[in-house]
Amino acid sequence: MTSFLLPMLLCCGCRNADRKELRSYEKGGKKISFLSGGEVPEEFKDYQSLSTNVQSSAYKFELLIKSENYWTPNPIRLFYGVGDDIIVEVNREEKEKESGYHYYKLDKSGTITDSLYHPLRGGLRSGFVGAYVVYLSSEEGYYYNTWPLNGDKTKKRIKILNQDLSWTTEKLEKTDHEISLDAKHIFYEAENQSGENGISWSLNKMFFFKGGIWQVLYRRQSFGADINDADKLRALRYDFFRTSNDRQPAEEENFELKFFEKTEWLSYGHAIGGGQAGFSTAGWSGTAYFNLPLNLDSLKIKVSDLIIEQEKADTGVIRYYRSHGSGENVSPFNLNYYTSRNLNYAIYSNDANHLYLVKKGE
């Protein structure tokens, strides 16, 4: 019975492939419609593969950064600087003469306009806060520069208040209140200290930008004073894009499915991992046609060997997988792509160690 039903199902699937269906799904609270099955409509004949090797008059790829660091899952990270500037942070491999972080500033057109290097020596840590880079070093103390704003790398000392811990509680509370009223930026650090008679304590540091300069207020507190992660230096920066061998977060998934060309009905598996058993299912493998936003225009690309799963027949969640043939486990489909109306280019990575810019053809 099984050997008879399987060809019947396959034939039904083949007949269904010849019929176009208008499908839809929900995305960001919006209903998106796309065609599935049947002959490829003429409007999709000019769609091209999103590949760094493709030659297209519509768009071009530029390799911006290559990281040789293969141990970090996200060796290239991007965040906004001042205005429309984007700053790229790159981990370099440890066999370099001096390891550290490299920073590149991109303008609205994707041109590198400046660079900055942060060596990993002397306990140096740094953080980008608006127009400033703040440095915390066990050897050099605290300083900052205005490189994000104007390219100036000159070190400016951060003024320490109450360095000898002699201020009264009243003075500390008054200063703390004044800072919280109008300081532009605030973050906290804590450093455990070994006290006399075996009684340890914590040096609480309140860094703030006020009156055109960075300052830090010292305060002695009981041992084990905890700083919330949201109040630390690293929390003041948001990485909107990270290169990865994995799928980007859902908010970065800004491509739009327009048509799905069914080519082969097959059985495939899902390997869940984490101690959970995998499972097998069946569905269509084919070529998906996407529109990707690029400034006020869009890139028209196609991706072959995809499997599309939809939770419901209409307006359900869509998930994409790479097909590796009949009977094989699928793998996640990664289209790590980002753009904004403020930029004249898009950002694309096909793995963790390469970052490309996609620009419109001339």
UniProtKB/TrEMBL annotation:
The protein depicted here goes by the name: Uncharacterized protein
